[in-house]
Amino acid sequence: MTPIAAVIFDLGGVVLGSPLHAIAAYERDLGIPDGFVNRVVADTAPAGAWSRLERGELTLEAFYPAFEMDCAAAGNSISAREMLACMQAASLPRRRMLAALDAIRSRGLKTAALTNNWATQDPGGGTEPLRGLFDVFVESSVVGLRKPDPRIYAYACQELGVQPSQAVFLDDIGSNLKPARAMGMTTLKVEDADAALEELAEILGFPLGNQ
Fold first, then answer.
1. CATH of the domain at 81
2. Mean pLDDT of 81-92
3. What pTM was computed for the model?
């Protein structure tokens, strides 16, 4: 087995609280079908408003009406601005993930963030406070590629200076893991953060901080 040299983390739903949970709560509040928003995102990719936002092709102000039109065409009305505010409120760092990042780097392994995101107008907000936790920080809105495009995984490995077979990748969305696995990465789906970190510790062969 090729020794692991780097660990690549998704942000929302892995290092941070889950935006998927926030979307689900928003759907329940509106009384629209569970999973509706994610189906719209998937069904309109790669040309839909959500995909274009995450590739940096739309500003937030342009995204709001465009995504609302995508949702309306699929049969339900939403406020994209309100939904993104709910997602932002849920995106708090998970302390055990932060401890794991420290433990990984202290052992000499590299770390990367690989996130589908959008540009923020707040220079001190968004992903800025997290950058110092990682050796490499790959944002879809900056590089113009988004998961699950295989090119963004290749880009992350290139920036880390590792082969895919030397990397572990954690994400909370299964379709984002498939291309990474096909390239040779070890992949972990994060449904429960503590369980995922226990599995990661087994792969790496050392403990990953306190509970």
1. 1.10.150.240
2. 93
3. 0.93
